[in-house]
């Protein structure tokens, strides 16, 4: 970025304020550092929510007290200096990146050398309420979107649970589950930048200080908060200095382009498929064949079934865990040959038939037979509060006395203690004469040995995962990220899950722990293209590293809930997914699910087994149904009107091929399977651009526009004749054109939309100034169709 660009982005608004441009967002700060305006530069409309007080751009939690700045000055090096009494200071370097601006803390000093616990960003209160993208950190209405993006693993979305005063940041007014998600009924907002209140929306983030041992508050299933001790991070890694966010304003259609530029420009995880960014790639929503019995002996049969269904990934899910000897060290069990080399052989046999292999994992869950637990507990297991034995304890005792009952309070799963190398469970406890009396001890759990323990020995609470095992602390999380990446790098496995990902937060490290697993795995991967990851939870500092969520369990998730899930995906610029649905059902039931998937543009995990497919009398018909519906969906063959009809949950449908891979007959059915009305024709479109023109240029002013084709199979955009105006760039993944043109003269050029495998290219010649109005005028620019994955 040039110095001139920086000056254009940060400037004084008067004697007591500062203005910052971030894309089409004009951010105003008062002389005391309070956010006073969130203005759309094109319309002049201020979108800050009024009547509820203000918040500074940055502040500190010192002990249990929020300390706000009282003065803001702008340095010559484009650094915002927020100051206050007793030496309080936060310096923030601002850098303009054209479509967004970054804000990075370069100095943070608590007043009077107090205990600086947390650095807070915002919240920015907005009156934009139409759509909330909690994890993407974007709020939008029909013409404008405002976003906040964490730029480091330790910059967490949400609001710290450690803060006792919940009125700070309007936290006591935040809705815990505005998207009505079943996967997390107590909300994802604790890991999400975006939040909703009765009067507006909030964008907020924070960074926790780890320069000393700290307690982080964790909650399970909406229960009470429980403090988990965390160790200091080495050197300067634990400081809040380096905390960084991006802010931007844009049109909703252009938000993926801004997020893409942000990810590449700030070196965030950027998974691709067919070399296209996964957040905009149709292939990210591809369906999997989820098998409970995949093994070295039947992999060729599994691949044959997948090919019959037009599916490219067979996914191993035995016993809800995956093909592992144990969760923790994640060594392959006998179904995959007992080791990485044999697993690579299984993968190779599937690849020979054009099918890839995926494996399920349970994040930082640790099974009780894993080497992290037995024969000697790892010192890196996540542990809770501790107390000392108040008296000697014999190997056969079923009662114990502790100096405090604090470790036993509610807030984590299980009633388990670790004393020395012995695991124990307990029944009840009470405080008698200042000591904690524990009863109902079960000794020598998880394969440990009952042992005598002397008075003064430390007893530690051991939080359990949802399957009754242990959790890994940060060192184990990092080791697991290394192990996962080693598997993907050496065996050829090309899909996985981060199931139970919330456990990485419950280990005491919050969203930073989740980022350590997700982003840490991604960074260690040798090949970034073509690898698909799923997750049980979504958060703002892991949004970039994950491919998709696919929430929904066989037998326990209604289609109504699936629709709610897909609304969340669309709001967060994620691919549509149906979750896991059973393939061991009637043909009509499966086609009903496939029809909803076509209406939502959503893939699925089709759950079954190789043995069931081998023995099923209707297997061929079921697999062909999957192939026809998924082929038509992925080619964009259904019209908007047809997709709306398919989303009607009261309807039934049958799809049959007319010309394989090109056209189909779509017949509505009644509840008995009889035809209702005439059949409709479904035809894959010939790839062509739907954008008919581009807005005019205005020299020196931000330009944003987007070209798009009618084919979801378009994977790459490039200028193939002529050239863009100087100062503009074309995003190859999204078709977005952005920059600051150096001229107002109209320019003509040709763009090619390259098709993926089996999809033709599209070509179109564009001339700027043939549609719309110049950017920065009083009217919002709307170019091409809205970016959409789910609802039309």
What does this structure look like?
The chain folds into five domains: 3-265, Beta-galactosidase, Chain A, domain 5 (Distorted Sandwich); 269-284 and 291-379 and 478-549, TIM Barrel (Alpha-Beta Barrel), CATH 3.20.20; 386-462; 563-578 and 593-634 and 638-683, no CATH class; 687-792, Immunoglobulins (Immunoglobulin-like, Sandwich), CATH 2.60.40. 17% of the residues lie in helices and 30% in strands. The chain is built from eleven helices and 49 strands. An eight-stranded antiparallel β-sheet has the order 7-8-9-10-20-14-13-12. It has an eight-stranded parallel β-sheet with strand order 38-37-36-25-24-23-40-39. Strand 5 (58-62) and strand 6 form a beta hairpin. The protein starts with a helix and ends in a 25-residue tail after the last strand. This is Ig domain-containing protein. InterPro entries: Cadherin-like_sf (IPR015919), Ig-like_fold (IPR013783). It holds the Pfam family He_PIG.
């Amino acid at each position: 970025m040039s110095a001139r660009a920086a000056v254009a982005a940060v400037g004084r608004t008067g004697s007591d304020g500062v203005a910052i441009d971030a894309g089409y967002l004009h951010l105003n700060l008062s002389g005391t550092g309070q956010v006073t305006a969130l203005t759309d530069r094109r319309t002049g409309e201020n979108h800050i929510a009024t009547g509820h007080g203000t918040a500074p751009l940055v502040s500190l939690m010192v002990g249990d007290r929020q300390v706000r700045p009282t003065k803001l000055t702008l340095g010559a090096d484009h650094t915002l200096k927020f100051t206050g009494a007793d030496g309080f200071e936060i310096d923030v370097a601002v850098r303009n990146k054209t479509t967004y601006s970054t804000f990075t803390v370069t100095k943070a000093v608590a007043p009077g050398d107090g205990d600086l616990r947390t650095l807070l960003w915002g919240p920015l209160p907005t009156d934009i309420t139409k759509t909330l993208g909690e994890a993407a950190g974007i709020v939008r209405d029909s013409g404008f979107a405002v976003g906040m993006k964490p730029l480091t693993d330790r910059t967490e979305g949400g609001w710290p649970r450690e803060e006792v005063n919940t009125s700070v940041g309007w936290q006591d007014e935040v809705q815990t589950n505005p998207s009505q998600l079943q996967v997390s009924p107590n909300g994802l907002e604790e890991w999400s930048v975006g939040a909703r209140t009765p009067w507006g929306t909030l964008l907020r983030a924070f960074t926790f200080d780890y320069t000393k041992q700290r307690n982080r508050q964790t909650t399970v299933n909406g229960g009470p908060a429980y403090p988990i001790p965390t160790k200091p991070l080495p050197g300067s890694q634990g400081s809040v200095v380096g905390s960084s966010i991006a802010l931007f304003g844009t049109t909703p259609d252009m938000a993926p382009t801004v997020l893409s530029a942000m990810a590449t420009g700030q070196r965030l995880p950027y998974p691709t498929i067919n070399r296209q960014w996964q957040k905009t790639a149709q292939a990210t929503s591809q369906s999997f064949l989820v098998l409970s019995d995949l093994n070295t002996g039947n992999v060729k049969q599994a691949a044959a079934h997948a090919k019959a269904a037009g599916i490219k990934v067979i996914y191993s899910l035995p016993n809800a865990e995956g093909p592992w000897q144990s969760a923790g060290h994640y060594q392959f069990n006998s179904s995959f040959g007992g080791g990485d080399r044999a697993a690579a052989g299984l993968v190779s046999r599937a690849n020979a038939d054009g099918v890839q292999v995926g494996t399920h994992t349970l994040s930082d869950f640790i099974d009780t037979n894993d080497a992290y637990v037995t024969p000697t507990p790892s010192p890196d297991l996540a542990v809770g509060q501790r107390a000392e034995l108040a008296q000697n304890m014999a190997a056969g005792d079923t009662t114990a006395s502790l100096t405090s009952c604090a470790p036993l309070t509610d807030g984590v799963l299980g009633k388990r203690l670790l004393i020395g190398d012995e695991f124990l469970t307990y029944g009840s406890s009470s405080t008698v004469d200042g000591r904690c009396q524990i009863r109902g001890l079960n000794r020598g759990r998880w394969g440990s040995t009952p042992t005598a323990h002397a008075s003064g020995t430390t007893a530690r609470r051991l939080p359990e995962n949802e399957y009754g095992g242990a959790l890994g602390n940060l060192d184990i999380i990092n080791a697991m990220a290394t192990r996962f990446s080693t598997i993907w790098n050496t065996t050829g496995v090309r899909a996985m899950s981060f199931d139970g990902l919330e456990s990485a937060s419950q280990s005491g490290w919050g969203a930073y722990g989740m980022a350590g697993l997700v982003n840490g795995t991604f960074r260690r991967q040798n090949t970034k293209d073509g690898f698909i990851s799923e997750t049980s939870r979504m958060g703002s500092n892991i949004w970039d590293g994950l491919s998709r969520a696919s929430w929904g369990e066989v037998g326990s998730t209604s289609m109504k809930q699936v629709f709610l899930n897909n609304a969340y995906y669309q709001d967060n610029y994620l691919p549509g997914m149906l979750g896991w649905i059973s393939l061991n059902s009637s043909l009509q039931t499966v086609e009903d699910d496939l029809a909803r998937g076509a209406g939502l543009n959503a893939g699925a995990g089709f759950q079954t087994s190789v043995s069931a497919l081998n023995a099923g009398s209707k297997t061929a018909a079921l697999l062909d149904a999957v192939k026809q519906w998924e082929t038509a969906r992925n080619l964009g063959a259904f019209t908007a009107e047809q997709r709306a009809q398919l989303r009607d949950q009261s309807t039934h449908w049958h799809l049959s091929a007319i010309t394989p891979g090109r056209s189909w007959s779509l017949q509505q059915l009644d509840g008995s399977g009889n035809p209702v009305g005439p059949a409709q024709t479904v035809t894959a479109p010939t790839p062509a651009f739907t954008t008919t023109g581009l807005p005019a240029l205005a020299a020196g002013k931000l330009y944003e526009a987007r070209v798009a084709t009618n084919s979801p199979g378009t994977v790459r955009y490039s200028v193939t004749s002529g050239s863009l105006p100087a100062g503009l760039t074309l995003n190859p993944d999204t078709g977005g054109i952005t920059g600051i043109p150096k001229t107002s003269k109209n320019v003509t050029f040709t763009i090619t939309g390259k098709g993926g495998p089996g999809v033709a290219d599209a070509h179109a010649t564009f001339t700027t100034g043939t549609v719309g109005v110049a950017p920065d005028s009083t009217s919002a620019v709307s170019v091409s169709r809205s970016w959409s994955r789910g609802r039309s």
